[in-house]
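Inverse folding, one chain.
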């Protein structure tokens, strides 16, 4: 990345997932990135999206390595406790819906609460993995109720945080990311390898897209090809 200067620091939350690990690998190869900090259950035992205390503790630990020019939240889940996305209303289950919102919306919102203050002043980027299915305007197929709704919710959290944070740092950029269908444990039950984007290609595209974004008092929603997505 070029827009963050020659010695920016990066932090990747969810660094052991397929896409999170892809970000870590790409950033370590970036000569402009002086440090990559990884956050995951493996790196920080006890870290869990369902446990706000653990998120606050992780942020406190990471603060010593900041401030960060780039923070990537690569957390999220499509299959919840062995159950895939609902295809029709009759499949809705309150417990699984609550879990989906906890992992895909509430946890990431609390990550914003604790990690957004770790961004560097001047130009800095906070990016959250989202999904095109979280776009209300793009929904033409239906189905996938809990996943769609939880991703739409995290998009709203991000948009609202962007408006607030712009008052503190007008050069900050908050972005929701659509990585494409990447070959991973998340996508394996729903897509064949022939219809998947290699993780390296996805991450390279997302970093390029982030590099090109301009600051504004609102969040961006972009895909790995750099194209804007309607909310």
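Residues assigned per position:
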């Amino acid at each position: 990345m070029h827009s963050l200067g020659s010695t920016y620091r990066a932090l990747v939350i969810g660094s052991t997932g397929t896409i999170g690990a892809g970000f870590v690998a790409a950033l370590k190869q970036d000569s402009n990135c002086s440090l990559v900090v990884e956050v995951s259950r493996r790196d920080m035992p006890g870290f869990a999206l369902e446990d706000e205390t653990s998120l606050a503790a992780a942020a406190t630990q990471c603060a010593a390595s900041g401030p960060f020019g780039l923070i990537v939240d690569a957390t999220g889940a499509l299959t919840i406790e062995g159950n895939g996305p609902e295809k029709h209303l009759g499949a809705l289950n309150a417990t699984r819906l609550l879990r989906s919102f906890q992992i895909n919306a509430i946890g990431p919102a609390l990550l914003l609460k604790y990690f957004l203050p770790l961004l560097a002043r001047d130009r800095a980027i906070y990016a959250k993995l989202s999904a095109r299915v979280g776009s209300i305007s793009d929904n033409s197929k239906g189905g996938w109720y809990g996943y769609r709704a939880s991703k739409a919710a995290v998009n709203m959290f991000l948009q609202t945080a962007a408006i607030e944070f712009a008052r503190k740092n007008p050069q900050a950029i908050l972005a929701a990311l659509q990585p494409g269908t990447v070959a991973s444990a998340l996508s394996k039950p729903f897509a064949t390898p022939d219809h998947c984007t290699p993780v390296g290609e996805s991450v390279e595209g997302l970093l390029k897209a982030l590099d090109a974004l301009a600051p504004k008092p609102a969040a961006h929603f972009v895909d790995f090809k750099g194209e804007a997505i309607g909310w």
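Helices lie at 18-28, 52-63, 94-115, 145-165, 199-212. The chain has a mean pLDDT of 94.
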